[in-house]
């Protein structure tokens, strides 16, 4: 039906006749001459209909936006002054000699020249995706998955599919359930990840596995999450953490080079402890130069209880962020930041402005100055490197609250003061604790199949709180791109971890009996990693939501305005499945 | 941890030291010298432990089947007479100089030297997959998907993901449902195919789409089906049936050449009518030389009502299969075939043996001979080309029964008489009817989005029964590899088809309103096809069940003996989903 794509026609085609199919992007009538921009996936080209060809002009006169047409014409240079150097097709135009309307279009319910509501965009997704920016994102995504696949296949990874209808996981509260017809009263769960299956594949000797795979989580979607999301899932045998990090770092470096011509260089590494201390985050954005500087040692004897209390508490923390140029902040702005840290549980935000430092303490302004000796303020100024015009913002509370609040404040200040440096700052975070304590109980920081680092099962049981895991997260610009670990391949160790996590023997047998059993049959050492594809593509395309890099995302209430899913089920079907509905959400 | 794969060590390594990781496939003790076959994904290699290295020998003595080990050793030629030319590693052996047991193995619950029950194989799938034949099938499958992706991406197809949580389809009875937590009382459905989404992607201008994607169908699994299966799903814009067939035929040809070094040649084409007439099947196995030869015209005046009845009925059919060498069939064997066609509703199976044809009707043996004049038997023998020693088997009944029964009989005879010729016989079946009549109602032979061939909406409504569709199926060795069609891109035509199918306007609006709406906005012509990946890989690997080319299939009752899915749900979860279980399947 066509000889080429619209977006491919450049000056090398001059003099040729081409036939194109596409959509009318814009139509202008300039004194009887009709111009249209004809659009397809590859781009747009300008077409001119001339009164010298009245039959074609007559058809062109009926064209409206988004009509689907087939056009034949002759490529010629644009008149002088009309060349658009920004466009591939900007040097030429096509004189239309034949025109067929394939399908008319009603007036679009979306106006591409203004913001449309998310609801409208999703309801008419097929029209929203016609916008070049959206089309290009999906094309980019397809190229990313192609490049990832090529890289991994060259490295001997096998693409192996794991089940979507599977068993509920320990974090079952967020599982989507699927009633079984043949086993009435029982349910499949949609996988939150193929974790156990990929481990089983390693035990089956598949050696190197990957899959670009849908995962599912029924959770709060406000934080730009989606009920179904896509992972680049990787697992290897006979490789340690170093080996997995090396392959996956090379993969991401290769991807950025291929797709964006960006050289990410070698990724630096940072321990979890250092990341939490300096940046208040386990996924620090290194483009942001602000750091948390600990000053508890200086505050132990000050009269100000807000500082000395946490400074003398083993679980407390006193830290300060120096904001260059921050002395200009108004009282109201400081109040806003105080409210901001309050979201994270901080009870206040002490501050010291540095204005004429040369004058000693006289150059400082602060409501808390009276509590701090010149010796202490000098030491703080020296440690933070504060200069005239800066502000120092203090966090003092339990370490948990301070780290979270000041970590969040650091990000906000970095944006507000426009401090971000550099375009891409990758990072490996390593040496995570095995467990975190929440309300007296231990939880796995990664998942219960993560191997501890250099410990026997007995040593781990003796001191679980201090144990580090063999886990690693890849972080880019403050976003966790992926995370993984060396897995436990020893049955005793796996039982020890379940027992530390308070998973009773019977529960462990019920939920993970097959894994424990599998570990008996010569299970090999294995390790892996999973990347969030949606987030990766979002970062690489500069989109602001993962919804903008998915073809058919759901709304924040997990609905699809296009197909109107979910919807009530046919009573016969519920009967077949032997379930009934107890309560309905009001419309 | 290793320098290479076990299966890669050939005579080019002689003299080198290698370190390998893998599993003990077999251990033999020959007068104090221990031999093991060490296995990994890539193959096996023979290792020798010699009494000259007693420390290593001592460890080797503890080895049992499926122990996971790390071995260091020196590659040397095998002694004369021990060379195995069948194996890549058959010319060498490794003298073990270092050996570490990574993980011991309990005695396997599966015995690889004998048949294991399907249940046991699936329960210990990770062990079943260690068998080289199974491992190689999964590796083959991964290479197939890689080759398909490369082919399609070179042709400009974009890999775009469509939702798994979606809306129930018209064939909703077989949908898996997923209760929504945020919209209590409502359900998502898992897709039986991404049909509507891929059509919407064409309307969004994505031009060429593909996806290797899981689909779901909650149906009887006895016929080697699985609740989740994988499609190679393809859709294109501005291409007609010819265009889609040409690309997808090239893809399959390329795949067979790359993977099996088989040249499939150009695929012949056959109309649906011819396939049903000559082979009694819409997916004829052309390796089978038997054909159905119609003889109704010869039977209209015979006295035998079993023949003359259907021969004079417009909806009847009288046909004959000539089986070379079939005259040797015993009465009991013929009775067995009679029972076989009975499964398909045939009330009998008349036969004529041809023994001394030269003698005329005297050379024929048959209980029905008395009803047939010599003129008629001569005509039948001429038309079927029957020779001495053949048998003619007759089907006479309604065309539906005869076609189905004789089509099935043809396949069975082809196998029983070992008649299959040639290894690979591809075929396109085209010119399907738009609709089939079942109990007076019209059903879509493909699906309701299939375009009729060369008809306006008015013409279609005037004579739906005679209409042909623009659909095409790719068949290989009697298996439907894939099917597709040109889709309807005109709103009037789509409404006409819905109305012919008896889908009321309101129902159409409820179920497909979004599709009808989308057709208003300059929808382009589009067409596509979907291949069954599991079936394709099964054929290519010579496996006898799709379960043997899937990593973790379900049983015929749609359960997973490995993870024990499906399983009862946590009551709190059901509460959150606002559903209750009415009835349980007894254990």
From TrEMBL, chains A, B:
Enzyme Commission code: 6.1.1.23
Binding annotation for L-aspartate: 171, 217, 446, 487
SUPFAM superfamilies in alphabetical order: Class II aaRS and biotin synthetases, GAD domain-like, Nucleic acid-binding proteins
Top EC class for this record: ligase
Region of interest (Aspartate), residue spans: 195-198
Subcellular location: Cytoplasm
Keyword Transferase in annotation: no
Gene name as annotated: aspS
Subunit details: Homodimer.
Organism: Alteromonas aestuariivivens
One Pfam entry name: tRNA_anti-codon
Organism lineage string: Bacteria, Pseudomonadati, Pseudomonadota, Gammaproteobacteria, Alteromonadales
Site, Important for tRNA non-discrimination: residue positions: 81
Occurrences of domain Aminoacyl-transfer RNA synthetases class-II family profile (ranges): 138-553
Residues engaged in binding ATP: 217-219, 226, 480, 532-535
Name listed for the protein in its UniProt record: Aspartate--tRNA(Asp/Asn) ligase
């Amino acid at each position: 039906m066509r000889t080429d794509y619209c977006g491919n026609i450049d000056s090398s085609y001059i003099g040729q006749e081409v036939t194109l199919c596409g959509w009318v992007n814009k139509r202008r009538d300039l004194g009887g001459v009709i111009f249209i921009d004809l659009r397809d996936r590859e781009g747009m080209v300008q077409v001119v209909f001339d009164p010298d060809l009245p039959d074609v002009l007559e058809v062109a006169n009926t064209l409206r936006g988004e009509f689907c047409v087939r056009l034949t014409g002759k490529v010629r240079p644009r008149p002088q002054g009309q060349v658009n150097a920004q466009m591939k097709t900007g040097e030429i135009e096509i004189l239309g000699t034949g025109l067929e309307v394939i399908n008319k279009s009603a007036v679009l319910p979306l106006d591409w020249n203004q913001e449309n509501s998310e609801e409208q965009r999703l309801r008419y997704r097929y029209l929203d995706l016609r916008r070049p920016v959206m089309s290009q994102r999906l094309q980019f995504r397809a190229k990313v998955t192609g490049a990832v696949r090529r890289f991994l296949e060259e490295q001997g990874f096998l693409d192996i599919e794991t089940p979507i209808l599977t068993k509920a996981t320990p974090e079952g509260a967020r599982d989507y359930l699927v009633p079984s017809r043949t086993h009435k009263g029982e349910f499949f769960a949609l996988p939150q990840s193929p974790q156990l299956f990929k481990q089983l594949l390693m035990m089956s000797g598949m050696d190197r596995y990957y899959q670009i795979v849908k995962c599912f989580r029924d959770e709060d979607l406000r934080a730009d999450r989606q009920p179904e999301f896509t992972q680049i899932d990787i697992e290897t045998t006979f490789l340690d953490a170093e080996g997995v990090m090396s392959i996956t770092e090379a993969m991401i470096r290769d991807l950025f080079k291929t797709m964006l011509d960006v050289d990410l260089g070698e990724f630096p590494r940072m321990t979890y402890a250092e990341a939490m201390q300096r940046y208040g985050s386990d996924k620090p954005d290194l483009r942001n130069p602000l750091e948390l500087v600990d000053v508890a040692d200086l505050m132990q004897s000050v009269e100000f209880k807000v500082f000395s209390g946490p400074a003398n508490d083993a679980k407390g923390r006193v830290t300060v962020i120096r904001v260059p140029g921050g002395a200009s902040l108004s009282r109201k702005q400081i109040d806003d930041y105080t409210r901001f840290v309050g979201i994270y549980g901080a009870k206040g935000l002490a501050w010291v402005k540095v204005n004429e430092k040369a004058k000693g303490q006289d150059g400082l302004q602060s409501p808390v100055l009276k509590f701090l000796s010149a010796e202490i303020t000098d030491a703080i100024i020296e440690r933070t490197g504060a200069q005239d015009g800066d502000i120092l913002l203090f966090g003092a509370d339990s370490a948990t609250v301070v780290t979270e609040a000041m970590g969040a404040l650091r990000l906000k200040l970095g944006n507000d003061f426009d401090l971000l440096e550099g375009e891409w700052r990758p990072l490996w975070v390593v040496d995570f604790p095995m467990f975190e304590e929440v309300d007296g109980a231990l939880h796995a920081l990664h998942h219960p199949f993560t191997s501890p680092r250099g410990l026997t099962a007995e040593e781990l049981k003796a001191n679980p709180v201090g144990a580090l895991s063999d886990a690693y997260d890849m972080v880019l610009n403050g976003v966790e791109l992926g995370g993984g670990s060396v897995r436990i391949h020893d049955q005793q160790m796996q039982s020890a971890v379940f027992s530390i996590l308070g998973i009773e023997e019977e529960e462990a047998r019920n939920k993970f009996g097959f894994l424990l059993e599998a570990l008996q049959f010569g299970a090999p050492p294995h390790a892996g990693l999973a990347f969030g594809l949606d987030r990766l593509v979002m970062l690489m395309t500069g989109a602001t939501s993962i919804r903008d890099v998915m073809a058919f995302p759901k709304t924040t209430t997990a609905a699809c305005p296009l197909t109107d899913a979910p919807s009530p089920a046919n009573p016969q079907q519920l009967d077949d499945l032997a379930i009934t509905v107890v309560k309905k959400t009001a419309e």
